[in-house]
Write a structure and sequence with these properties.
The chain is of the alpha/beta class. The protein contains 16 helices and 8 strands. It has 2 domains: 159 residues, Rossmann fold (3-Layer(aba) Sandwich), CATH 3.40.50.1970; 197 residues, Dehydroquinate synthase-like, alpha domain (Up-down Bundle). Strand 2, helix 2 and strand 3 form a beta-alpha-beta unit. The relative contact order is 0.11. The structure holds nicotinamide-adenine-dinucleotide and fe (ii) ion (FE2). The site of fe (ii) ion (FE2) has 6 residues, from helix 7 and helix 11.
Amino acid sequence: MYQFTLKTQIKGFDTFLEFAQAESLQASDLILTNEFIYEPFIKPAGVPCHILFQEKYGAGEPNDQMIDAIHADIPDGIERIIAVGGGTVIDIAKVLTFGGTWKAEELFTGRTVPEKCRRLTVLPTTCGTGSEVTNVTICELKSLQTKKGLALDAMYADEAVLIPELVRTLPYKFFATSSIDAMIHAVESFLSPKAIALSSTFSEKAIEMIVSGYRYVITHGAAHWTDKAAEFLTASNFAGIAFGYAGCAAVHALSYPLGGKYHIPHGEANQLMFAAVIRRYREKQPDGRLNALEALLGRVLETAPDQALDALYALMEQILQRKPLSAYGITEDEFPQFADSVIEGQQRLLNNNYTELTREDMIGIYRACNVI
Ligand SMILES: NC(=O)c1ccc[n+]([C@@H]2O[C@H](COP(=O)([O-])OP(=O)(O)OC[C@H]3O[C@@H](n4cnc5c(N)ncnc54)[C@H](O)[C@@H]3O)[C@@H](O)[C@H]2O)c1
Ligand SMILES: [Fe+2]
């Protein structure tokens, strides 16, 4: 038995102005965004909403202190949160829909189960997380030095609004990290034991679109990625729908200590882990769903199925070059600790692995990531 429900209503506009005119924004709406998005897109629309800038509360991806400080600044009477930003802004906005008194650390460690009291509208400005259609939010817990995901159905956005012009200002580096994240969502959800034909259709389409977009970028030059902004935004959304159902797995799980302790951006940390995890899967279980992935990639990359994974790694490397873990200051003696923290804290993801990975497998994967 399966049930596939898309809980979020999805809308598309060409511009923020069209969205603002169609939606009649209110004083009871709070927009969480960044100033560099507000100035060119939101300010000219003259909206009456309360505005908060995420970067005023700290740099980088969400952490518990940042979330608590933003939460404390929500004025009374706010009925809807509108997130206009990347995964960082969106993931923070998701927990701001909760009422009552709570601290982020209590939420993310499951000590408080909150209740939704505000609606959520999400306008993604990166092309990677798919967070606009998932029930997941991810936060660095300062005390634990790792990232932790929280999945609650109350965190599905009521509406996701796709507006390509919002994505075009993204610097190449974050186009690369976020689109790589989307590619990995598509692959991990395709390989997940929870995948069904419906979710795989979204994974497959996302893989096809991202591969085709990457080939365009490689042919026309990095600056031209914006020509394909609408396609990358759609692909990211499809990958979000796919992993929102079938889940992500070991690539994400093993990347969390890198994000939590070394603040490597999410998509970049995933890219570091990706090839090594899939290679380990292939060694341990060469026959299975992985063959369907190889066949799909062979078709899309016009190569023999048994060469297709290597062709995919090479393509991704052309978009975002990997560095050895040692280049980030990570030392080999940390690998057992990383593996233990993954086993302890990331079972939600590990349950979706293509094949089981032991502690030794995980340490071996981290070691392999030092050899480029
Ligand atoms: N909830 C989920 O389902 C889910 C899935 C994947 C990732 N995530 C989380 O999302 C976060 C990463 O999100 P991301 O990859 O979207 O990056 P991000 O939101 O951290 O943004 C990356 C950088 O780009 C800037 N930026 C964003 N949009 C811009 C624009 N249009 N123009 C100029 N600059 C812009 C941001 O300010 C930031 O400096 C991580 O915390 C990760 O854990 C969540
Ligand atoms: Fe991700």
